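Deliverable D2.4 — example input (structure tokens):
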């Protein structure tokens, strides 16, 4: 129920950012090295958190890295750690290709002695926009591939410490081009914003941050908001964007790793025209006609698969790419393979999985093509989705005796997804991938630097999740008279979404976490308390919900301002693309406390429940202590019943009849 990132709340460790030890100049970030030093782009920065295992006799792995056109190829290289399985034949080999050209062939014998392989990039053509590395192992243990496959020892590991080192060319003519500023893999980029912004300038600064977060978030480069006086010039260069109010300078000006932008709408539009000339805001209503995207348009890389055993072709797509959470979704999967005459018990099959759910199986025996139309289960849709095709070729006992060759399989580029409609917003954080594409509204007090910075960071979260810049109109929080009836945008347009970064009475907003003081989040099924926050504790809270039909985010704080502003910490941690919080947004409530770190909660009718602290007449109190109260009532009733029974219901005591017997004897004697 709770997804806890880290219990550590220190400013440096909590955010998961490296190089933050020096707090003297920027917002706690050390300046970048002076002449744009070589940048290491690790597998982790490219989305791989662990080492990659290539299994089978002929596995393949390919990865593409966008690069700046001003890199120095003579000083740039790729360093790989390739660790072969211990049982591999020493004559097995690995081919390494760069941009479809063979760069090197390495034997397993040499890799067992030295697993590090360095590929220089000096053979790349000038002004290369990307580097594609392809690893093509040919692995064996014995002369019988069928026996090798069943051992499970046919594998090669690509170490997670492998990296690309990209060195900028300080003499390149492109170092003053605006477009190329956004290509290098900087360690971080700082957006410097002047103090005392008026509402129009503050709106421009927020939208500029959103644009930067979108451009650099694709490379997992964090963008840091800094508001204050312009920094003194340092020796060398730093990666920074400076928003300024100077009237004498040009709209846009680049000097190496510094980009200066005038704080005017014209300058911002000029920047958008250079960076995103084809940027189009989707219509408020999704088209009624079916929409279609081919696999390559969704990022699929066409390459042949050599199948002996099993190989997987994988398409990963997001709802942000579809600009919707479809009501109907279909896949058309087309593949071709070389003809193979299967004999005996040999078989060739394809298994189709959608988000780890098997949806179809095909027998491909003695076929050369597959053309499958697959309705995909809508209830399995997630912000990020995977459609996998697992091809399995088993030569059988007869085939294995004849040195079988792999089947060459090609998933064709005209395979496609077709969808229609858009599901309603749910009020969850997962809506950020597809329900914030329209211009929205930010309500914030621009004179509160921490809240303004937090609003910028959350706009960056939206841009990162929706994979396009998210723009907003700004509304001063002080101008709001009725929080239960918020105004429209300046032109009378209903905003596509809202972000509120201000203290608001909880009764005015249909937020899932309603609190006047502290709160408790609990599991209603086992009555277990998952989080308890007292009224005098410090906490930051981000909530997602639907208010008047509009997806709304509300960022606020409980308690007094602490030594470190928790609201700013929370939003910055979510905006940093290198932290888990940026990719694990879930539920509808996010909390940051001194003791619990960042936690995600799903507070809803069918999920977790909340309760105000110190309320003995609440449902939680009655549910949690019902059994105890019932037991106490039974015991008290039993004691009372026994006491009454002893006083009123006990049997009469035996009374001695001796005096009566003596008296009767005396009377008898007298007579």
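Example output (designed residues):
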């Amino acid at each position: 129920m709770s997804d806890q990132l880290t219990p550590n709340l220190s400013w440096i460790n909590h955010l998961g950012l490296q190089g933050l030890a020096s707090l003297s100049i920027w917002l706690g970030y050390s300046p970048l090295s002076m002449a744009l030093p070589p940048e290491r782009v690790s597998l982790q920065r490219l989305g791989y958190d662990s080492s990659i295992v290539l299994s089978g006799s002929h596995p393949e792995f390919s990865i593409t890295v966008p690069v700046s056109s001003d890199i120095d190829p003579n000083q740039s290289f790729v360093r790989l750690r390739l660790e072969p399985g211990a049982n591999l034949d020493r004559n097995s080999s690995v081919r390494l290709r760069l941009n479809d050209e063979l760069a090197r062939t390495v034997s397993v014998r040499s890799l067992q002695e030295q697993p590090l392989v360095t590929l220089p990039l000096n053979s790349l053509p000038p002004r290369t926009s990307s580097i594609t590395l392809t690893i093509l192992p040919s692995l064996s243990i014995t002369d019988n591939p069928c026996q090798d496959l069943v051992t499970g020892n046919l594998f090669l590991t690509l170490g997670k410490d492998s990296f690309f080192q990209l060195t900028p060319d300080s003499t390149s003519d492109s170092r003053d081009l605006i477009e190329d500023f956004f290509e290098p893999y900087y360690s971080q980029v700082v957006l410097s914003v002047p103090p005392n912004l008026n509402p129009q300038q503050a709106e421009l600064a927020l939208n500029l941050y959103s644009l930067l977060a979108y451009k650099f978030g694709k490379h997992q480069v964090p963008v840091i908001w800094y508001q204050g006086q312009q920094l003194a010039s340092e020796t060398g260069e730093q990666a920074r964007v400076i928003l300024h109010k100077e009237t004498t300078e040009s709209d846009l000006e680049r000097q190496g790793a510094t980009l200066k932008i005038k704080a005017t709408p014209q300058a911002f539009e000029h920047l958008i025209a250079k960076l995103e000339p084809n940027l189009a805001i989707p219509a408020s209503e999704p088209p009624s006609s079916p929409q279609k995207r081919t696999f390559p348009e969704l990022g699929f890389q066409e390459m042949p698969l050599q199948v002996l055993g099993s190989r997987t072709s994988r398409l990963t797509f997001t709802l942000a790419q579809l600009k919707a959470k479809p009501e109907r979704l279909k896949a058309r999967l087309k593949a071709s393979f070389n003809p193979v005459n299967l004999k005996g018990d040999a078989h060739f099959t394809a298994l189709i999985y959608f988000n780890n759910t098997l949806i179809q199986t095909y027998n491909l025996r003695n076929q050369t093509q597959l053309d499958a139309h697959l309705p995909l289960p809508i209830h399995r849709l997630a912000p990020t989705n995977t459609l996998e095709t697992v091809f399995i070729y088993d030569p059988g006992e007869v085939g294995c005796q004849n040195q079988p060759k792999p089947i060459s399989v090609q998933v064709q580029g005209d395979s496609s997804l077709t969808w229609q409609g858009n599901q309603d917003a749910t009020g969850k954080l997962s809506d950020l991938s597809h329900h914030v594409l329209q211009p929205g509204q930010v309500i914030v007090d621009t004179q509160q630097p921490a809240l303004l910075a937090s609003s910028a960071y959350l706009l960056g979260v939206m841009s990162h999740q929706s994979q396009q810049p998210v723009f907003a109109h700004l509304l001063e929080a002080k101008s709001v008279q009725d929080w239960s009836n918020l105004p429209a945008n300046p032109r009378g347009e209903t905003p596509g979404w809202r972000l509120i970064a201000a203290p608001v009475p909880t009764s005015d907003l249909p937020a899932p976490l309603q609190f006047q003081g502290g709160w408790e989040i609990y599991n209603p099924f086992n009555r277990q308390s998952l989080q308890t926050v007292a009224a005098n504790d410090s906490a930051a809270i981000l909530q997602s919900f639907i208010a008047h039909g509009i997806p709304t985010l509300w960022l606020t704080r409980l308690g007094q301002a602490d030594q470190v502003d928790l609201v700013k910490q929370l939003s910055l941690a979510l905006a940093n693309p290198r932290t888990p919080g940026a990719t694990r947004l879930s539920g509808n409530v996010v909390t940051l406390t001194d003791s619990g770190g960042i936690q995600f909660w799903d507070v809803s009718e069918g999920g977790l429940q909340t309760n105000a602290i110190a309320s003995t007449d609440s449902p939680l109190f009655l549910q949690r202590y019902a059994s105890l109260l019932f037991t106490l009532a039974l015991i008290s009733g039993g004691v009372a019943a026994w006491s009454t029974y002893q006083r009123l219901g006990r049997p009469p005591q035996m009374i001695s009849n001796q005096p009566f017997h003596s008296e009767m004897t005396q009377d008898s004697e007298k007579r």
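The chain has eleven helices and 36 strands.
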